Amino acid sequence: MNIELARYNKINKEIADIKRKLNIQEKKMDVISKLEANRAGPVMLLDEMTKMLIPKRMWFTGLESKEKKVKIKGIALDNKTVADFMTQLESSKLFKGVNLEMLKQQKIRNKNINLKQFEIICLRNDVIK
Question: Looking at residue 93, what DSSP letter applies?
Fold first, then answer.
């Protein structure tokens, strides 16, 4: 009887060990799946942002995305260009709550050119992860 009990205890221990290893493996697979799913998000975001860019009138100087909040920094030739860009952001399915956080004049040294430095913060919809 003790021999059978010892054998069953050994089998139970092996089963518990296998279950523990499977659980660890499942967690690793979940992490890999999440990383794989999130990998394309930033590339897609940048691609969509450049499609909304107003050519030869504005340039991005920074783009930061944390969770659903997107911060866009850039330089434009004038206020109208910034306004047109914001309108494009608002009309896209990618963003909501588009807000101009900062707009200030930036003078180019040695030239008589005044540009507009801007910072826009918006919330990303769930279209891009």
Answer: S
